[in-house]
TrEMBL record:
InterPro entries in the record: GH (IPR017853), Glyco_hydro_17 (IPR000490), Glyco_hydro_17_plant (IPR044965)
Species of the source: Miscanthus lutarioriparius
Any one GO molecular-function label of the UniProt entry: hydrolase activity, hydrolyzing O-glycosyl compounds
Record-stated family: Belongs to the glycosyl hydrolase 17 family.
Signal sequence segment: 1-23
Pfam family, one: Glyco_hydro_17
Protein's name in the database: Glucan endo-1,3-beta-D-glucosidase
Superkingdom of origin: Eukaryota
Length: 118
């Protein structure tokens, strides 16, 4: 009897802990440093078809941002570390205050966040 209890207790504890675990957000990087890339609206369609909910880019190209507007995909615009390091004023202003009007008017684009890429 005591042996069964000693075996059941760790299993019960494991099951309780697994029930409390939540996964993080999984998405894709949308790199744009290549030749013959599809248009941003085609990329946005492909990402929607694959049920991808999170996309990260490293430039603030307005065509890309507009392509993801009202798609339900959360778009994260990152800042390259070398850009932030090279321009102190740029680094200190990034992420403070509201986004530019052209971005703020787009529905369905995720909230701005500051990020770092090394």
């Amino acid at each position: 009897m005591a042996g069964r209890l000693m075996l059941a207790l760790p299993i019960l504890l494991f099951l309780l802990l697994v029930g409390q675990c939540h996964g993080g957000k999984i998405g894709v990087y949308y790199g744009r440093n290549a030749d013959d890339l599809p248009a941003p609206d085609k990329v946005a369609q492909l990402i929607q078809q694959q049920s991808i909910k999170y996309v990260r880019i490293y430039d603030s190209n307005i065509d890309v941002i507009k392509a993801f507007a009202n798609t339900g995909v959360e778009l994260m615009v990152g800042v390259l570390s070398r850009t932030a390091i090279a321009k102190t004023a740029y680094a200190s202003s990034w992420g403070h205050g509201p986004p530019p009007p052209s971005v703020a008017d787009l529905g369905g684009v995720g909230a701005p966040r500051t990020t770092e890429r090394r």
